[in-house]
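Reproducibility note. Readers wishing to regenerate the assembly model reported in the main text can use the exact inputs given here. Chain order matters: entities are listed in the order in which they were concatenated for prediction.
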Amino acid sequence: MALLRHHKFLCRSPEAVLDGLHAVETICRKRGLQFTKNRWLVLESLLQAEQPMTAYELLRALETRLERQISPPTVYRALAFLSEHDFVSRIETTNAYVPTPYPDHTQPYVFFICETCGSLAEIENRKLEALVDSDAASLGFRIGKRVIELKGACANCQAMELTAD
Ligand SMILES: [Zn+2]
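Running the prediction on these inputs yields the following structure tokens for the assembly.
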């Protein structure tokens, strides 16, 4: 289906992680933004993660990796920058962050969150976007931020449920 683009974060290769970082680096250069070391490290951790990560999990991961203490505001500030420029998205219901799959264009995504394993799938759904836009127009509503999150069980976890019986 052309309207759906499925994006999973599981198992990103080291090359894909680097590609993601370079894509953001290029955009920052074009927009005159500073892609500082801390911002790079936070985004890198999110790109390497198999799941969305909370600020606290990021802090722990960075401390383990860098073998030193990091002040929480360092992570919060980096996340604030990355969110503000749409390089990462925040999952509202779990307060966790994921890298934006296509950071050079800001499309709304529908997040499918597995409540069992915590995995996340994102779909860019333009059909849904158009529906929401027409509803908003009929209400005279101006949309600011779009967050659509669906919780349930991923295909893997459903298969596990079946074999467990
Ligand atoms: Zn699952």
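We highlight two features of this model. Helices lie at 14-31, 37-48, 55-66, 72-84, 126-139, 155-164. Residues 1-9 have pLDDT under 50 and may be disordered.
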